[in-house]
Design goal:
297 residues, alpha/beta, Rossmann fold, eight-stranded mixed beta sheet, 11 helices, 8 strands, 39% helix, globular
């Protein structure tokens, strides 16, 4: 993978929160909606493949990684992250952008379309759902009550959760166990996984859990029938967190959308089968009117 020249920039958001964002590449804009467990680094394969033709913009969610926490700890809901995204687009003078969302980023992108549809040129939604994510975990509706209770319990012992997290992410065999348990494919990029895990250990776990709690409250399913831009939904057929059935439901709800199912892909399909996904995104952009002037052919 080439050495990526990613520039970190900062902006003060609507409520005074200090937000870090990252920019790399040249050409039409692609805004990246990260998963809750990842920064721009989770997109390294996509950036390496497309940054000679597109300009990527990624931001760290408030309170996580390089972004500061909000003064009001209640301001960690999906609409707050969307407001941060809009501040960044204004700061970068970007009127319209493609939006690539992974996991939590799918919900953020859909909520962004709710409040500012004119900003979105096209969607690529990977391993995510439109809302109420706990209802689809393991394809078991009972999880919608189990997960919130678990998160509530986790907030009562943030020190323990932080210590366990640091231990798990620094353990060399973490990727191997994820593969053996079916949480990740055998093709997982272990080097990149290790890099992501290494940065994860320094997160404020209380903020992290609060963001997860707010994520569970978000529901954007009502937005899907109003989406009138080209949309590609990508799912892994072994994704335990956001199963294929949820992606199929999204495609049925979004007019004219397309579905790509990655055989053997889990919740981390973009770092398990990057070449396949990169080629599909490139083809989708070309066919649906978002090809870069620098694109071959």
């Amino acid at each position: 993978m080439p050495n990526l020249k990613v520039e970190e920039r900062r902006v003060t958001s609507f409520d005074g929160t200090d937000i870090a964002y990252h920019v790399v590449g040249e050409g039409p804009a692609i805004m990246l909606g990260n998963g809750l467990g990842g920064s721009w680094k989770a997109w390294k394969h996509q950036i390496a493949y497309l940054s000679d033709r597109y300009r990527f913009i990624s931001w760290d969610y408030r309170g996580l990684y390089r972004s500061g926490p909000p003064a009001d700890k209640k301001a960690l809901a999906v609409p707050d992250h969307v407001k941060d995204a809009l501040v960044i687009l204004e700061h970068e003078k970007i009127e319209r952008t493609a939006f690539l969302g992974w996991s939590m980023g799918v919900q953020v992108g859909i909520e962004l379309f709710r409040v500012a549809p004119e900003r979105i040129a096209t969607f690529v939604l990977i391993n995510g759902v439109a809302g109420r994510p706990w209802e689809t975990v393991l394809d078991m509706r009972a999880m919608k009550s189990v997960v919130p209770r678990m998160l509530g319990a986790a907030r009562t012992m943030p020190g323990v959760i932080a210590a366990v997290t640091r231990k798990m992410v620094t353990w060399p065999e973490t990727a191997g166990w994820a593969k053996r348990m079916g949480l990740a494919s055998k093709t997982l990029d272990e080097e990149l996984w290790g890099e992501l895990a290494g940065s994860f250990k320094d997160l404020d776990m209380d903020v992290y859990v609060q963001v997860l709690q707010r994520l569970g409250d978000h529901d954007g399913w009502d937005v899907l029938p109003t989406i009138d831009v080209p949309t590609l939904v990508i799912a892994g057929d072994r994704d335990m967190f956001t199963p294929r059935s949820a992606s199929e439901r999204m495609v049925h709800a979004i007019p004219g959308s397309e579905l790509m199912v990655v055989p053997g892909g889990t919740h981390y399909a973009a770092v398990e089968y990057p070449e396949l996904i990169n080629l599909r995104i490139e083809k989708f952009f070309r066919e649906r009117g978002y090809a870069s002037p620098r694109s071959p052919g």
